[in-house]
Design brief:
The protein is α+β, with helices and mostly antiparallel strands. The chain is built from six helices and five strands; from the N terminus they run H-E-H-E-H-E-H-E-E-H-H. Strands 2-3-1-4-5 form a five-stranded antiparallel β-sheet, with helices on both faces.
């Protein structure tokens, strides 16, 4: 049987995983087998750029943490899994998805976005959503278009008023 010290260390890791899941708006489990150390470093830098990070935990410890949180991860915890997390819902998914395009060894398994489980298909769907800055730019462009159309209408109305006088 494991000693009390080892059990305490394992419990602290489980608590760390639970804290990261609870404090993150996005958690993604992915298979990292086949990526080199330099590619892993590149991935870590790409995730850091969007205020995200990843860590590798033992599947048994992740399973216990998810069970404690009453989250069913299904078959996602078979084989080596890395755990990416962030306060941003979409950014880590986009980074991992783009990285997987260039490095086919990396595959997304499952995620938790805003406390809801997202399978691989849903993660791919989330990866196509524009970034927050992109969405804000699209919103601003739409608003500018409305203001432009309003100014044209007001100008035409003013010209019509002047012709009638």
């Amino acid at each position: 049987m494991a000693s009390a010290k080892i059990l305490a260390e394992k419990q602290s890791v489980i608590d760390e995983i639970k804290t990261r899941v609870e404090e993150s708006n996005s958690v993604v489990l992915f298979d990292y087998r086949g990526i080199t150390d330099s590619e892993a470093k590149e991935l870590r830098h790409a995730l850091k750029d969007v205020d995200a990070d990843y860590k590798v935990y033992k599947n048994t410890l992740m399973a216990r943490a998810f069970n404690d949180l009453q989250i069913d991860m299904g078959d996602a915890l078979t084989g080596p899994s890395a755990f990416a997390y962030s306060k941003d819902q979409i950014a880590p998914i986009k980074v991992l998805s783009n990285f997987a395009k260039d490095h086919p060894a990396l595959t997304l398994k499952v995620g938790i976005v805003d406390k809801e489980i997202a399978d691989e298909a849903k993660l791919k769907e989330y990866a196509t959503i524009p970034s927050r800055d992109g969405l804000l730019t699209m919103l601003a462009g739409g608003m500018i278009g409305l203001v432009r159309d309003l100014s044209i209408c007001l100008d035409l109305y003013a010209e019509q008023k002047n012709e009638n006088e």
